[in-house]
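Re: weekly structure request thread

Next one in the queue (249 aa):
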Amino acid sequence: MKTNSRMHRGFTLVELLVVISIIATLAGVGVPVIISKKKDGDRAQATANIKEVGLAMFTFEQDYGSYPCNSTAVEVRNNNPETSLAFGSSSSNDFFRQLIAAGSIDSETSFYAKTPYTRKPDNVMTQGKCLAPGECGFAYIMATMTEPLSSSGNSRRPLLVAAVFNGLTNGTFDPDIYAKKAVIFRIDTSATAEAIRPSDKKVLVGGGKTLMQGGDKDTVWGSDVNPVIKAPEKNRANFANKIDNPNTP
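Done, posted below.
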């Protein structure tokens, strides 16, 4: 009885190349889809968390008469003498600690947003540990370097945003984090994902204007406000690692 010699000789080189080509094609189609789905999930988490922080900002504003600023830091300290948290003014982390000390929010978890410079918060909320560098992914928008926005101003003004490009304060956003979208929380309590323009990494809001374009009567800021971004503090070791190894989770 004859045997099938093909069964004994295995795959030919051509057949192996065909199989490899098919696998490469499937990977080329599937991997981008998987990456896109993950970015969509990261964006959904950031949107949910920014809403929680935004609502905590409103609770704080009702209690202290304004959003966190240098003046409210004094009042929060006086009302909560037991707190040992640091209230600086150089980053969003500094101002957001006021929310925790005042009891407007009770967990670090809500401040997390996936970026190259963040890590999962550990919910250790003691001096030097609360909202440590990398445990916050949201930038805080203020009217000046020391004064907060007014809740009675234009309700479409952004109050919190993610993810600012490389943790910078120039109004640019990273299109690679949330599939070419920025996450925005506005004074009207809306939390939305809005498209980032690839050419300059800015968010368009209509009429050729950009999200952080202040001092213009045709924007939500009007002619009297030039918004200031207080960026979150980077986890510098994590940030450097992801810049060098962009596929690091």
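The longest strand covers residues 191-197. Confidence is low (pLDDT under 50) at residues 240-249.
Next request, please.
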